[in-house]
Amino acid sequence: MMHTTTSQQVQRESWDGDTAASGRLLQPGLDVTHGQILYLDDISVSFDGFRALNRLSLSIAVGELRCIIGPNGAGKTTMMDVITGKTRADSGSAFFGQTINLAQHSEAEIAQLGIGRKFQKPTVFEAMTVQENLELALAGPRSVWASLRARLTGQQRDRIDELLTLIRLGEQRARLAGLLSHGQKQWLEIGMLLAQEPQLLLLDEPVAGMTDAETEKTAELLLTLKGRHSLMVVEHDMDFIASIAGKVTVLAEGAVLAEGSLQQVQADERVIEVYLGR
Amino acid sequence: MQSALSLRLAQRIGPLPLKLAGAAALAVLLAMPALHLWTDPASSLHVSAYTLTLVGKILCYAIVALAMDLVWGYTGLLSLGHGLFFALGGYGMGMYLMRAIGHDGNYQSDLPDFMVFLDWKTLPWFWQGSEHLAWALCLAVGVPGLLALVFGWLAFRSRIKGVYFSIMTQALTYAAMLLFFRNETGFGGNNGFTDFKRILGYGIAEPATRATLFLLTVLLLVAALAAGFWLVHSKFGRILTAIRDAESRLMFCGYNPLYYKLFIWVASAMLCGLAGALYVPQVGIINPGEMSPANSIEIAIWVAVGGRGSLIGPVLGAGFINAAKSWFTVAFPEYWLFFLGGLFIATTLFLPRGLLGLLRRHKENA
């Protein structure tokens, strides 16, 4: 259960000399020799007879920013649940890198392996300050014993300062997270994901409920993350997708309907059909 | 950064009036046994054995309330079976006290009276070693701890939460009560243990013994408050509140809530056991009634009325309600439960942060 993330961290620091980088693309132990960080192969999930995912196959390349769109009930959130261990697939397999079978790990282990997830509804620890939220999320040992003896190191303080600047919450650091605006909570949650130093980020509707200005800033933020992390973004806001997307995957009825650039999928007859109805 | 930290610490301990009130309360508590021992019974300063025992009993309850608050107020696990851990601690101590009666029981036997009454010839295996106070204390802390460990492991691993968890804890204490009611279980059936004579050779009703037990209870309460303060302000404590407020977020941050819940749950049960062990020699009796579901619910009410999620709140709640109870049950015995229920409803409706919230709000307005 208790992973020795400290030693990994030391290795990562020495491997990646660029300390300004807010995340590390590759981690020793994760085999991405074929250039893919995530493989979903032939995954099916049913709830009480309803097929939420129907033989879904999808892969994400290292450093890619992939947008997932699809009508309600297409299986987007269920797919994230399967990747993060919240839901078990009835059949098919999910691999992180070449070798890690996600079905064999719990939610907490998957998070420690380097997959971070932002929920559809922004979820932060409301009774704690912004800084304390980030402290809890910081990469490091996760055992009870370690938590009883934990003290912030100077390095960790610097990392928190860096994150606070990145998510534009520097001035709010001592505020209770419950008092933040909706958009700020979204950012804080993204900041918490980054604090974990994940290699793959799953973002479920990161700009839902944000003002236009906030949406724009979020797009900027995600673009700076692209390349350093691999990202999978589920969104409904097409303008937002147009501002960030390279490749778009359309899900419908639990399977991939189309894949390509935003223009390509928007021109696809089948996509128009599922969105507009027959 | 250093000064900011000490400033925050001062804020957390509370404003000056609260600190002064705490210091005064502690001074009064420490003076009570002295006033019991060294003042003339006729003097107005004298603290009677009744008062000392009553306050000592309430202090034990306050420790239980604090233990309850760590799992409920901070971690969000509402236990309706905490009375069980308290009672088990009491039984552990009770076993020693029964053995310490020696030949002075009604039947002048080596065995405790109830065993003679049941016509048992030898001590059951689980009574072995109970003539040593140290072993009895190990039992008083270890048995609740072990039970909490097994129960907690099964419940938390299966991710049983909320009202389901509460109902299971309630069922657990109820089942234990039924078990302890049986004579064959070997703990004196529905009479439990009573008629204690001495502890470590000192008469159980002697003023000095009472005073010592009282002081030990005060010390345990202070130690529990200090340990609780350290715990909830560590990273561990923040993880507990994270479990309470957004458990799935915590899991996706890479923490496994199981071990955190288990740690605080077992620690809380052990603290209750210790409180029970101090309660029994002061009150002079332990019986399965202590395991009744109503007792455990009352513990939750102390915490709710005092103020969940603060350390001092539950102590105030336990003190206030039990003081009210001892007055009420003499003055209007029939109406106590109505009053208690009404108080609980009023607190839930108007004082979500309990009495402590009221004090703090008053201060904020001032």
From TrEMBL, chain B:
One GO molecular function term of this record is:
branched-chain amino acid transmembrane transporter activity
Ligase recorded as keyword = no
Q: What are the coiled-coil residue ranges?
A: none
State where it is primarily located: membrane
Membrane topology (UniProt): Multi-pass membrane protein
What keywords are annotated for this sequence in UniProt?
Cell membrane, Membrane, Transmembrane, Transmembrane helix
What is an example of a Pfam family matching this protein?
BPD_transp_2
- Location in the cell: Cell membrane
Q: Does the keyword field hold Cell wall biogenesis/degradation?
A: no
Task: State the superkingdom.
Answer: Bacteria
| Gene Ontology CC: one annotated term | plasma membrane
Question: Where is the chain membrane-spanning?
Answer: 20-38, 50-72, 84-102, 133-156, 163-181, 211-232, 258-279, 299-323, 335-356
User: Mind telling me which InterPro entries this protein's record contains?
Assistant: ABC_transp_permease, ABC_transptr_urea_perm_UrtC, LivM-like
Query: In its UniProt entry, what is this protein called?
Result: Urea ABC transporter permease subunit UrtC
Q: Which organism is it from?
A: Aquitalea palustris
